[in-house]
Recover the amino acids of this structure.
């Protein structure tokens, strides 16, 4: 039988089958030497002497490292409008890392109620929407219908700094989750991040992890070409003259032309140029 793992606490797992039946699972001895199962994995399980063991991990579509989650469709970047202040630089770095993993990025901007001039973010929000990213604005009381739509039918992870309101959103969508938020965690004197074990919650017809995903902005495992070829904004109908174009100094670059004509966001392109030197291989500029 095949199930999907939705919870991991060190060596103990919970899996669900297509009928949403839950199983408590441990990995077989054999498996422990090979691939460690992670949340999001599809695994083959067997019943042996009254317990279920994970016999095999099926091939992964993708795999996040921090947190360890496999087969992710979508990463929802959660960023506050203020406290801490909204940063397109931070959002764009996350977009690049997410897209390089072949995961779709979306954006939720929280704490809009704390902004004195909510219009001050209009231009930035427009820029993301025009570039094709879903953007949802949230306050402590806003309707969560749009967020539910975003989650439905997808395996999602939440990405974003501590305190931006990731757990708050999930609690508002499904109050029975009762995930601890920062006010509570401070009184318990826990560490910086409120969320510890890894879990995909069954919420709004989808699966979603409330973990501080993509907490490090590390580009050193990506090649320039991985980056250049996966930025969602740069997927244009018109190709660049060179197939391995990294949209920097090459002649006939369709991306640069699109930035000039306003079709591609200049903000995103400028951030891309800043990230390029942080990738694995340095680009030898041929003048
Ligand atoms: N005013 C306002 N406060 C918010 C909003 N969203 C979250 N907060 C507050 O922000 C604080 C942090 O929220 P959390 O949901 O714990 O943040 P988190 O992203 O889960 O943080 P970690 O678990 O530490 O990564 C809490 O005090 C929330 O009540 C919002 O839209 N408006
Ligand atoms: Mg949290
Ligand atoms: Zn190009």
């Amino acid at each position: 039988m095949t199930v999907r793992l939705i919870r991991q606490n060190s060596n103990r797992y919970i899996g669900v089958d297509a009928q949403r039946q839950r199983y408590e699972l441990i990995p077989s001895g054999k498996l422990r030497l090979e691939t460690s199962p992670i949340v999001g994995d599809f695994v083959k399980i067997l019943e042996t002497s009254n317990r279920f063991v994970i016999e095999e991990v099926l091939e992964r579509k993708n795999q996040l490292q921090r947190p360890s989650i496999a087969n992710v469709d979508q990463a929802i970047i959660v960023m506050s409008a203020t406290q801490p202040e909204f940063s397109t630089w931070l959002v764009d770095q996350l977009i690049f890392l997410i897209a390089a993993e072949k995961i779709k990025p979306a954006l939720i901007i929280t704490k809009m109620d704390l902004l004195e001039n909510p219009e001050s973010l209009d231009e930035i929000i427009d820029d993301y929407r025009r570039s094709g990213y879903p953007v949802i604005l949230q306050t402590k009381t806003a309707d969560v219908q749009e967020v539910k739509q975003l989650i439905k039918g997808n395996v999602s992870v939440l990405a974003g700094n501590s305190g931006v309101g990731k757990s708050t959103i999930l609690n508002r969508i499904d109050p029975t989750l009762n995930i601890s938020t920062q006010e509570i965690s401070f009184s318990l004197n826990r560490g910086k991040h409120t969320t510890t074990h890894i879990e995909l919650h069954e919420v709004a017809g989808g699966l979603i992890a409330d973990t501080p995903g993509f907490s490090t902005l590390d580009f050193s495992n990506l090649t320039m070409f991985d980056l250049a070829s996966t930025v969602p904004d740069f997927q244009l109908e018109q190709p660049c003259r060179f197939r391995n174009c990294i949209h920097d100094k090459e002649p006939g670059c369709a991306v640069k032309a699109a930035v000039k004509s306003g079709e591609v966001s200049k903000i995103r392109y400028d951030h891309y140029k800043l990230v390029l030197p942080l990738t694995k291989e340095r680009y030898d500029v041929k003048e």
Summary: Residues 184-194 have pLDDT under 50 and may be disordered.
